[in-house]
Write a structure and sequence with these properties.
Helices cover about 30% and strands about 30% of the residues. By secondary structure, it is an alpha+beta fold.
Length: about 170
């Protein structure tokens, strides 16, 4: 397993729509393992493949609490097939937007259809933190960032801050 470098805002790759994974093979499982290793190292609770520069519809997450046994989950080609009308608000952060947090309102519960790391079709009903994390990571696969769910004023301030920081690092701007 390899820890991969994270793509940081304002890199335009974060706005790319990821393509479905065609084959679930050893290479795909290796990608999942690398993503989990990268996520745990960061540390984070979710990571989409696009965040390490791979525009494929795969995400990993682990919402177990500190001190609990790790429960890594791999979602390949995930699709939200149902959302509750009830809403919930969580303070979200993102490994691609380090040290910035904001409250985001999303559906409180969702149903997701996906393939597991063995290529078997699965369906999961999620609520609470798991539902929020899944929605956040599936957004990444669609080129959407959590800052797209906050006010334009706050979003523009965050983008300006990260664009300025990237120029000092010599990175690409949006």
């Amino acid at each position: 397993m390899t820890i991969k470098p994270l793509i940081i805002l304002p890199d335009p790759i974060l706005r790319q729509v990821s393509q479905p994974l065609e084959a679930i093979n050893d290479e795909a499982r290796r990608l999942a393992d690398d993503m989990l290793e990268t996520m745990y190292d960061a540390p984070g609770i979710g990571l989409a493949a696009i965040q390490i520069g791979v525009p494929r519809r795969m995400l990993v997450l682990d919402v177990s609490k500190e001190g609990e046994e790790k429960t890594p989950l791999v979602f390949i080609n995930p699709e939200i097939v149902a959302s509750s009308d009830q809403r919930s608000v969580y303070e979200e952060g993102c490994l691609s937007i380090p040290d910035y947090y904001a409250e985001v309102e999303r559906p409180a519960g969702i149903t997701v259809r996906y393939l597991d790391r063995d290529g078997r079709g699965q369906t999961i009903e999620a609520d609470g933190l798991l539902a929020t994390c899944l929605q956040h990571e599936i957004d990444h696969l669609n080129g959407v960032l959590f800052i797209d769910h906050i006010s334009k004023l706050k979003r523009d301030m965050v983008i300006r801050k990260f664009t300025k920081a990237s120029k000092t690092r010599g990175a690409k701007a949006i």
